[in-house]
Amino acid sequence: MWDFEQCDRRRCSGRKLVRFGLTKLLRLNEGFGGVVLSPTASVVLSPANDRELMVNGGLAVVDCSWAQLENTAFRKLKYKHGRLLPYLIAANPVKYGQPFQLSCVEALAAGLYIIGEPDQAIELLDKFSWGHSFLALNEQLLDAYSKCSSSSDVLSVQGEFMDEPNESQKSLASQSYSDIYAQLDKELTDRDDSESTSSECQSRISSPEFNSENAIVDATCKYIFCSKFGYVAVLTLCSCTTSGDLSATDLSDLQRPSCIQRILDKQVATMVDQFNRVKLIYEAGKNWDRFYNRNGTRFFKDRHWTTREFSDLLQLCCPHAHSQVNVDISCGTNSLSILEVGCGVGNFLLPLLEEFVLRKDADSKSQEDRPICAPPLVFACDISERAVRIVRERVLSVSPCLLCTAFVCDVSQPGSLQHALIQAQSGSNVTEMDLVTLIFVLSALNPPDMITCLKNVASVLKPGGRLLFRDYGLHDYAQLRFGRGTRLLAELPSYARQDGTLSYFFEVNELKSMLTESGLETVHCEYVHRRTSNVAERLSVQRVFLQAVAIRPADS
């Protein structure tokens, strides 16, 4: 490997392979007699013609930044057999979903696979937690390329794939992980406008026994499992005609194939050691601070779907709307009080406040004789001081008239929420809320601390007040993507991400039991199933979320 040192050494996949002794670092003036994978080459890699060259001379890549190709001195490199890789999709976190723009390890693995050395390709990718995703995204293409006899055959396969008529593929752009989550938000917002011929199937089921006879699904699914490390992918072009909800059986068949258990077994066999597990839990607050210092408001997208998913929130934004919500709120001097636990940078709260401001302005211009409603009492807390500061700034940018009391609180500590809520208020002393939200928050806690968090929430709810909950469901695609050294506990689906933050995947009965133990009464608790399509490779993955509403009993 030649390294032009245009990338961060700590994140360079090629440098990591050098540290593992799986590749050699070449000097810029050092010659190489084997096959060189270079973006400036004019000949496409051929399995038949280049295998002997690779066996005798080896395989090399050029490590440089894709953004600096024009300024890279490729002429300094000494080699004769430069080769281009055909169309493939990147799976590394920086360029995920981008065609052609592979990292060093992806390029080496692709070259080895096409030449006929898939085991060596797997050995390289096995050093990266996302490595299996590269094979999952490109398995069909790699197999097709490896069977070609010449460069022209490789180009023909590439052309057939790129020219294949696929309307759903044409309508999508390359996506990063955050883009996929943003697309989910948009799909929730546009749910009422979606057509029955959409390539996305969605369903909400309240129990495994739920059944629907009105769903017709036409999908070709392929699950892939590698003996070196487990992974699952659904390579499919799905067309759905839905006149009702998708049945639980259909979703179970798609989301729980037999290979999933092997993936989970592999995760359990390579768990995080006890020292690092304790360290991750102890440094949870610091890790979230680092996360928001690094990403600010750029990572998570604002959630504009919440009023559609939770009718309780309509009372906050549209007090005059006809709703079946039992929250006691009326116009005049009374104000609805809402607390967002784990507010982050306000991705849930800000869209609500913006909608309230818009509706208030519309009502003031309306000719209808309506009473003036008091603005909501808004509270927000997070374990990250950086996130809390960002929320305060963003609320002021929405409207200087809106007041939001944002404060730091570690809800994993007993009694912390009620105490922090009182300490954060200078004038009024609001100690009980009409609504509390937990949106993708409980999964970020250590499992033993989840009950403590829910008890904290129950302590600040009014009798009859509601908790609105949404989080990851068991066997969500995000859970299956976790690789080696990420699982924290053998008996529970608790994981650690690369940035040190935690993740958990819930079951319906498990969450119901936790709500009951914390003193809350479950109004409803259900899975939300979604199928999300990913760009050029026709990858369709199952997303599983858990959504619930709980109430504090009036006699508690």
From TrEMBL:
Keywords of this entry: Cytoplasm, Methyltransferase, Ribosome biogenesis, rRNA processing, S-adenosyl-L-methionine, Transferase
Catalytic activity: an N(1)-methylpseudouridine in rRNA + S-adenosyl-L-methionine = N(1)-methyl-N(3)-[(3S)-3-amino-3-carboxypropyl]pseudouridine in rRNA + S-methyl-5'-thioadenosine + H(+)
Key word Cytoplasm present: yes
Gene3D superfamilies the UniProt entry points to: Vaccinia Virus protein VP39 (3.40.50.150)
GO biological process, one term: enzyme-directed rRNA pseudouridine synthesis
Taxonomic superkingdom: Eukaryota
Family named by the database record: Belongs to the TDD superfamily. TSR3 family.
Protein's name according to its UniProt entry: 18S rRNA aminocarboxypropyltransferase
Organism listed in the record: Paragonimus westermani
